[in-house]
Amino acid sequence: MDFDFIKQYTPLYVEAALLTLNITVKGVLLSILLGLICSLVRYFKIPVLNRITVIYIELSRNTPLLIQLFFLYFGLPKLGIMLSSEACAIIGLVFLGGSYMAEAFRSGLDSISDIQKESGLSIGLTNLQVFRYIILPQAISVSIPAFSANVIFLFKETSVFSAVALADLMFVAKDLIGLYYKTDEALLMLVTAYCIILLPISAVFRIIERKLRYAGFGN
Amino acid sequence: MESTEKILEIKHLKKEFDNTPVLNDISLDIHKGEVVVVLGPSGCGKSTLLRCINGLEGIQEGEILLNGDLISNQKKSMHLVRQHIGMVFQSYDLFPHMTVLDNILLGPKKAQKRKKEEAAAEAEELLKRIGLYEKKKAYPRQLSGGQKQRVAIVRALCMHPKVMLFDEVTAALDPEMVREVLDVMLELAREGSTMVIVTHEMQFARAIADRIIFLDEGNIVEESGPEEFFTNPKTERAKQFLNIFDFDSVHHGSNK
Lengths: 219, 256
Ligand SMILES: Nc1ncnc2c1ncn2[C@@H]1O[C@H](COP(=O)(O)OP(=O)(O)OP(=O)(O)O)[C@@H](O)[C@H]1O
Ligand SMILES: [Mg+2]
Description:
- The complex is a heterodimer of chains A (219) and B (256).
- Chain A has 219 residues and is an all-alpha fold.
- Chain A is 81% helix and 0% strand.
- The radius of gyration of chain A is 21 Å and the shape is flat.
- Helix content of chain B is 39%, strand content 24%.
- In chain B, the strands form two sheets. Chain B has a six-stranded mixed sheet, sandwiched between helices. In chain B, strands 2-1-4-5 form a four-stranded antiparallel sheet, covered by helices on one side.
- Chain A binds chain B through residues 115-116, 118-127, 129, 133-134, 137-138, 141, 215-218, and chain B through 54, 56, 78-80, 82-83, 85-87, 89, 91, 93-98, 106-107, 110-112, 139, 141, 152, 155-156, 159.
- Residues 17, 22, 40, 42-48 of chain B line the site of adenosine-5'-triphosphate.
């Protein structure tokens, strides 16, 4: 193990990690937004949009992120649309993540009984208020585990970004291996970087989960 | 307690589920301060009747008026109408993610846009009256079934409804908790609340009702005062229905 090598290239990893993190955070937040919109459309069965949402979810869940990225990065320019690799990465992540988040929310929404909705209606709330104050908060606490699994899943999916020439963690590792043949060191640093980022995220989610679920379900 | 002011008028109501009639030509007036108890065998349409009144179900024919205003099949404004109709269900229907106080305040705050302090003061007053003031910060899962139902009643009450609908609110309770819930309802009746009650508690029905409506297969078969209904029912169907209940109580008493 070449520790000097590790020391020398750590800053490169840090930079790549920050880039990866930056894109993941943006991608995840937008995915949550998209997922929420999709689940609203499906919950209220809004005509036409409901159809489109179902098709989107199927399409997104049944194609690999890599293919989606290739389409954005190499396919779209043929149609005259040029996107930076960062934009591709975020759009790709949101396209993928939106459907996973939508499904996570939906499993939560489906778990709330009709009686809850009806008791909300019977105190004079509108459909939207029932959703906002009664259904959604309960649905979120039910779907938190699926939801946090998705965040971690999306973060790991970023490893394919290197395919669209984004200098993320995977890209740096492959680069170093290609240049110096320090395979062990480069991979060790890659794994370490992912762990350093993911373990705290996992832990934070576990805490959030416990807090959120406390109100409705006890410990 | 009866007056002539009509709170609720149901005229020739017809309700079908997938072309199967469930309520046929129901006509019924409910006056201010009146307590009407709806009795009838399982599946006769009692719950459906209540659900039609507060618009959880649309109706196929006829109309329902609240204080003279048409309220049936008014999709757009139904949420405004429901502010005047309190409903308590059989299953414990409190919102599990909110404290007792927040459960009660949701309607006044969000539907009626009342000031939080004013509504909270009233809610606390009501909680004191049902002996659950100390539980105001508790979550529903920390309450017994009877306590939950009492809170559900207060939640409806805090909206100042013109009429309260109760659908077998004690049916899912352990026997020792039935009493505390019925007592709250008796208290409301004494204060002159207008109520429509579906129940299987015959003694209670007899004690609280100003009028008994007996439903069978979606028709009002008999309509009379409680004493008359229980001691001298007019129809064969009602006699049968009451006999079944007598038999039940004897059976449980002696055979076990
Ligand atoms: N959503 C629905 N779709 C189809 N049929 C329904 C629906 N709700 C009720 N019904 C039918 O309508 C009839 C009346 O039901 P309802 O629940 O009003 O009876 P009930 O008098 O309240 O009975 P119980 O004493 O058992 O509560 C029943 O035959 C029931 O199967
Ligand atoms: Mg019923």
